[in-house]
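Key result, reporting period 2: structure in, sequence out.
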């Protein structure tokens, strides 16, 4: 639905998806693979394994991950304040993931926490890949979603086959 709406907006704005795509097809496929391709299925797995307030809080630490990944991949300077903010922020993630029981480090679902943390890496990676894209934002997002749609459909099909539920409900 999001892909359809984005394409409709681009059409309404009389922009060309094909012209924009031709400028950087690899970037759109990589961005689309990251978001929505892998990011959303992984995030939904986190929500399946954890209470929503835990999954969302952990997922929202993507800004911290973006800071760290920008230092690595974009060679941006990470200041002492940035390091302190990341340390405090990820300490908060541990508090949330353990429901405040810091001494045992017992997670309600270690797998769910890993899914949520992996989603932060994907989201930050998506922003790093998209950073130097000078295309109009709605056009770029439409192309990301068009390129990510096949991945989402494959993930949906695989999950339906694994669960044995081949009905059309949930599609």
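The corresponding designed sequence is given below.
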């Amino acid at each position: 639905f999001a892909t359809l709406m984005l394409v409709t907006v681009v059409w309404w704005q009389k922009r060309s998806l094909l012209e924009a795509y031709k400028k950087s097809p690899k970037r759109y496929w990589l961005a689309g693979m990251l978001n929505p391709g892998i990011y959303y299925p992984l995030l939904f797995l986190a929500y399946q394994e954890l209470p929503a307030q835990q999954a969302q809080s952990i997922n929202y630490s993507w800004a911290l991950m973006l800071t760290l990944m920008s230092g690595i991949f974009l060679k941006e300077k990470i200041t002492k304040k940035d390091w302190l903010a990341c340390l405090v922020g990820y300490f908060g993630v541990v508090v949330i993931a353990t429901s405040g029981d810091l001494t045992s480090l017992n997670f309600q679902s270690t797998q769910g926490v890993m899914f949520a943390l992996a989603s932060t890496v994907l989201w930050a990676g998506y922003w790093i890949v998209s950073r130097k894209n000078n295309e109009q934002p709605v056009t770029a997002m439409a192309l990301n979603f068009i390129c990510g749609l096949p991945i989402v459909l494959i993930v949906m099909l695989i999950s339906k086959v694994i669960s044995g539920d081949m009905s059309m409900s949930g599609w």
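The helical segments are 2-12, 17-23, 25-49, 52-59, 62-73, 80-97, 110-130, 137-163. The first helix runs from residue 2 to 12. This case is discussed further under Risks and Mitigation.
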